[in-house]
């Protein structure tokens, strides 16, 4: 199942080579290598601060790496011109964590925005296309509403409708299940699977929700402190013996409280105060 | 001890220079994308949002600008009269109010009012768009945030500030007339005739040129503060405060510069 997409198309759609990203002198991504092939669903897993969101921002060209290259559809995002970058961006649809819909516009206008900006289509055609995109995500009745009037799950679905409005080849999700109840999150997972099947898209999902990851992933990549520690199918990752992967999968907490240190501190404080 | 102080001074200077540099770069970008915002030749959606901004920046500000101008007109007339009366030169109150407003108070008061009303609104709007990733969303949709968000505000301010300045001039001068009628029983028609006599086209034009510069400062500072927001909602609040403080400061600084230039070149 997971190996099938590789057989159909030769080159990877997204190819990440040795990228390094520093924020304020701190290394956030450290020599990441990753290929994402046409038609697969790649889930980027990792805890808070693992660098998975930073990697996502690199893939969608919001930030350029300090070293290495990110090649999307044959264009190196680190070196390309603004025109090339714009072209690549039009082939990527992004659904942001908190939907990032424009509150000053109706849901319908949000979805229509990329069409109005990048196509010369007649207004009636744009209306029809917008309605169809909203129907794909089950929001055809909510087009006239303001994004603020939608529930969390509906907002995310509206964001998906906007992301697919230009029929992108690559669809990117940032934390699709964050802040949603399990049922709505599962609906969104189904939507992602359905879209991939219907539109033959490459899907990249950043998440830390294991249930959601196992439902949608063809392959997974696990980040830890800015490095990629594993890439493989769900079965491969599940059977991995890497301690960090096991810890993440088995939900074992890191030791936060240093009880021995507290004892030592109290002992020294008491000794000091008696002196 | 002295080295860290020098270093601090140096880094503060570099930071301010960096800020001004950012302002200049953003202004360059904004001028570059002003074309699509223009009516008829440009993108209709941009012009539509520019019209919305004109209502917000200009039309909604009329009552506030008018009341401020009326108050300032009274203040100027009363302060002037209390001195000029001693010399029996009450008729010069007309000149004082007319010249004072057309050259200075009209554009300055308008700029301060707009900076407080709209400058903070620009930075708060853009800042919250940064926090909610709407600006990122625009960029991933291959839409330039400067063209989409800033340019309509810029065009709207460039059109509306001169209009508000004219309203402010008119209100201030009329207030002076009301004062003269109340205090010296000078007929309003006589006052208006004196105003027409003392108003100079050059003064009015200088005031309008100033208002264009003030509009540029308010929009660029407000939007830059918004675009520089990093973090959460508290940063948005801070950016709104910084937008008002910095744009008011820069407006007054620019006013000094303009007044000095016109004073030195005008001969008056």
Question: Could you name the CATH topology of the domain at 4-91 and 198-274 in chain A?
Answer: Rossmann fold
How much is the average pLDDT of chain A? 86
The quaternary state of the protein chains shown equals: heterodimer
Q: What number is the mean pLDDT of chain B?
A: 92
Count of distinct strands of chain B? 0
Strand order of the largest sheet of chain A: 6-7-8-3-9-10
Largest sheet of chain B: none
By secondary-structure content and strand pairing, the structural class of chain B works out as mainly alpha
Q: How do the helices and strands follow one another from N- to C-terminus of chain B?
A: HHHHHHHHH
Q: Which helices and strands, and how do they pair?
A:
The complex is a heterodimer of chains A (275) and B (268).
Chain A: H1 4-8, E1 12-23, E2 26-37, E3 41-46, H2 52-59, E4 67-72, E5 75-76, H3 82-90, E6 92-95, H4 107-118, H5 123-136, H6 152-163, E7 170-174, H7 182-199, E8 202-207, H8 210-216, E9 219-224, E10 227-233, H9 234-238, H10 243-249, H11 259-274
Parallel strand pairs in A: 3-8, 3-9, 6-7, 7-8
Antiparallel strand pairs in A: 1-2, 1-4, 4-5, 9-10
Helix pairs in contact in A: 4-5, 4-6, 5-6
Chain B: H1 2-32, H2 44-57, H3 62-84, H4 92-131, H5 134-140, H6 145-184, H7 188-198, H8 201-227, H9 233-266
Helix pairs in contact in B: 1-6, 1-8, 2-6, 3-4, 3-6, 4-6, 4-7, 4-8, 4-9, 6-7, 6-8, 8-9
């Amino acid at each position: 199942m997971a190996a099938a997409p590789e057989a159909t198309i030769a080159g990877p759609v997204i190819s990440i080579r040795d990228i390094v990203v520093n924020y304020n002198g701190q290394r956030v991504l450290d020599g990441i290598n990753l290929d994402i092939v046409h038609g697969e669903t790649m889930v980027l897993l990792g805890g808070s601060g693992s660098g998975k969101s930073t990697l996502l921002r690199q893939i969608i060209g919001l930030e350029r790496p300090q070293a290495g290259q990110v090649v999307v559809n044959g264009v190196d995002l680190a070196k390309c011109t603004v025109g090339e970058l714009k072209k690549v961006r039009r082939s990527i649809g992004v659904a942001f964590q908190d939907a990032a819909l424009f509150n000053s516009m109706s849901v319908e206008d949000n979805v229509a925005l990329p069409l109005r900006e990048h196509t010369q289509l007649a207004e009636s055609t744009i209306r029809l296309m917008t309605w169809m995109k909203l129907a794909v995500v089950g929001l055809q009745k909510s087009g006239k509403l303001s994004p603020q009037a939608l529930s969390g799950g509906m907002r995310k679905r509206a964001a998906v409708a906007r992301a697919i409005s230009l029929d992108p080849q690559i669809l990117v999700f940032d934390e699709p299940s964050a802040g949603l109840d399990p049922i709505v999150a599962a609906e969104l997972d189904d939507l992602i699977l359905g879209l991939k099947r219907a539109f033959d898209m490459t899907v990249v999902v950043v998440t830390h929700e294991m249930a959601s990851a196992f439902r949608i992933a063809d392959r997974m990549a696990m980040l830890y402190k800015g490095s990629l520690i594993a890439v493989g199918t769900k079965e491969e990752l599940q059977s991995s013996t890497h301690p960090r992967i096991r810890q993440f999968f088995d939900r074992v907490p890191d030791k936060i409280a240093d009880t021995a240190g507290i004892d030592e501190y109290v002992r020294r404080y008491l000794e000091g105060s008696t002196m | 001890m002295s080295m860290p102080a020098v270093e601090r001074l140096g880094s503060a200077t570099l930071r301010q220079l960096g800020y001004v540099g950012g302002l200049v770069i953003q202004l360059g970008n904004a001028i570059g994308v002003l074309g699509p915002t223009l009516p008829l030749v440009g993108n209709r959606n941009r012009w539509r949002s520019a019209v919305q901004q004109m209502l917000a920046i200009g039309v909604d500000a009329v009552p506030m600008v008018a009341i401020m101008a009326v108050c300032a007109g009274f203040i100027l007339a009363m302060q002037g009269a209390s001195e000029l009366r001693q010399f029996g030169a009450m008729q010069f109150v007309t000149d004082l109010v007319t010249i004072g407003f057309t050259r200075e108070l009209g554009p300055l008061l308008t700029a301060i009012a707009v900076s407080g009303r709209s400058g903070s609104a620009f930075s708060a709007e853009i800042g919250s768009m940064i926090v909610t990733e709407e600006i990122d969303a625009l960029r991933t949709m291959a839409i330039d945030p400067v063209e989409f968000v800033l340019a309509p505000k810029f065009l709207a301010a460039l059109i509306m500030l001169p209009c508000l300045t004219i309203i402010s001039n008119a209100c201030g001068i009329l207030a002076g007339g009301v004062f003269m009628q109340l205090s010296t029983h000078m007929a309003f028609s006589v006052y208006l005739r004196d105003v027409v006599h003392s108003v100079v086209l050059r003064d009015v034009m200088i005031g309008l040129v100033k208002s264009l510069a003030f509009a540029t400062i308010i929009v660029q500072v407000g939007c830059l503060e918004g675009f520089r927001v990093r973090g959460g909602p508290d940063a948005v609040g801070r950016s709104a405060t910084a937008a008002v403080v910095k744009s008011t400061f820069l407006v007054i600084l620019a006013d000094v510069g303009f007044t000095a230039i016109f004073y030195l070149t005008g001969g008056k």
